[in-house]
Design a protein that fits this description.
Distance between the termini: 52 Å
Number of strands: 18
CATH superfamily of the largest domain: Dihydrodipicolinate Reductase, domain 2
CATH topology of the largest domain: Dihydrodipicolinate Reductase, domain 2
Length: 431
């Protein structure tokens, strides 16, 4: 029986979930995998407060395991694996690097610290011979990191697209099903604990962008930094947008999209309409789903719980067992650098269809004028819907365009005659 000693950097919901899972599954893991996993130290901000919180949650971490000094975890000679649950970039990244420098394998679900400090963390791991595991950093319990890092290592992936933030998916699902506006649903989500008091990281798309940086790097075998990800959130989405999209056969999701064609790479996070029969259209609530296309594997869709203490703990504990049994750590095959992969040509002029909602005056010639302006920028209309005349005498015009370059769409919309119409919304459309 192999004995493996573990230390936690942070407790909280995820740390508590991992403690609970390891406690409940310890004997089973011994039988299945021949390894005895013991948590020796847990870093907390305040020991008395941690004991009170743990007691309320029914988590029985002994007081002797708790410490307020991170070096008790990162530099203890008996600890072999360090699990980080602190969240945020710092000091989490520095503590993980210290652990790696002292030869301890590190497991994290921290997409922020990883996306912004991946090169430094991997360099420290390689120098000391330690491992770096991060399955739970993207998609919670969905094993997408393992699929990209191992199963598809010999494939040529050219597209990754998915719903990788449960909070925004919950909000958009409620808006779709109940016809409610964003602010009302957000307040409900905060009351239920499904959205943070400050929800910016989720609703502004930052959380998804960090995750997409990691996914795209693994998928395309080259570093794609967070700063390269085009990002738009859901804060300006209205119930009217969703209803109009539904009338035309579409469902709205916040998608993370990465595509590669030769050396041309595009990475973007933004609200996106997909057809009602698209696999991602049916992914509701806080679920996550990730679609991968490769030259040889064709299409793969992975779906599961993207958040929550126990689903995330399940993914982390899988990494713990892997790390405990690992003889030689495995690192990504690409050169992991602070800067973007030099051979990639990043594009902000991707080809896309668009949902365009205009408020227009109700008189002859308006539609022809709009279509003419768009055609002059080589943007053509595939489908159009006109709503009833509003009390102000204007009408809602909704278009779905044929695929066109992003910058052509922007130019066309900027050239519309303000005396006859105003742009209410533009949302991209993916097939």
């Amino acid at each position: 029986m192999k004995k493996t000693v573990i230390g936690f950097l942070g407790g909280g919901n995820i740390g508590g979930g991992v403690w609970r899972l390891l406690s409940e599954m310890r004997e089973e893991i011994k039988k299945r995998d021949g390894v005895d996993l013991e948590v020796r130290k847990v870093l907390v901000k305040d020991i008395a407060e941690a004991l009170e919180i743990n007691a309320a949650k029914g988590i029985d971490i002994p007081v002797g395991c708790l410490t307020q000094d991170y070096t008790d975890v990162t530099r203890d000679d008996e600890i072999q694996i360090v699990c980080e649950f602190m969240g945020g970039e710092q000091p989490a990244a520095s503590y993980m690097e210290d652990a790696l420098n002292h030869g301890k394998s590190v497991i994290t679900a921290n997409k922020v610290a990883l996306a912004l400090n991946w090169a430094q963390l991997q360099a420290a791991a390689e120098k000391s011979g330690a491992g770096l595991w991060y399955e739970a950093s993207v998609g919670g319990v969905i094993p997408v990191i393992r699929v990209l890092l191992q199963n598809l290592e010999s494939d040529s992936v050219d597209r990754v697209m998915g719903i990788i933030n449960g909070t925004t998916n919950y909000i958009l699902t409620r808006m779709t099903n109940e016809g409610k506006d964003y602010d009302e649903v957000l307040r409900d989500a905060q009351r239920l604990g499904l959205a943070e008091p400050n929800p910016a990281a989720d609703v502004e798309g930052m959380d998804s962008a960090y995750k997409l940086s990691i996914l795209a790097s693994l998928a395309f075998h080259g570093r794609v930094t967070y700063g390269r990800v085009h990002r738009e959130g859901i804060t300006n989405i209205t119930a009217t947008d969703i209803a109009c999209g539904a009338d035309m056969g579409y469902v709205l999701k916040l998608l993370a999209i990465a595509k590669k064609d030769g050396n041309k790479v595009e990475v973007r996070v933004h609200p996106t309409f997909v057809k009602k029969d698209h696999p991602l259209a049916k992914v509701d609530g806080s679920l996550n789903a990730i679609f991968i296309h490769g030259k040889y594997c064709n299409d793969i869709t992975l779906q599961g719980r993207g958040a929550g203490d126990l689903p995330t703990a399940s993914a982390i504990c899988g990494d713990i067992v892997d790390a405990a049994l690992c003889v030689k750590p495995r690192y990504p095959s690409f050169k992991n650098t602070v800067e973007d992969e030099a051979s990639f040509a990043f594009s902000d002029n991707w080809n896309t269809r668009a949902f365009i909602r205009l408020s227009a005056v109700d008189r002859p010639g308006v539609l022809a004028s709009i279509a003419k302006t768009m055609m002059e920028e080589e943007v053509s209309i595939a489908t159009m819907l006109q709503k009833d005349v509003q009390p102000d005498g204007r009408v809602q015009l909704i278009f779905i365009t044929h695929p066109a370059p992003e910058q052509s769409l922007r130019r066309a919309l900027s050239r519309l005659d303000a005396s006859i119409c105003s742009l209410e919304q533009m949302i991209r459309v993916e097939d």
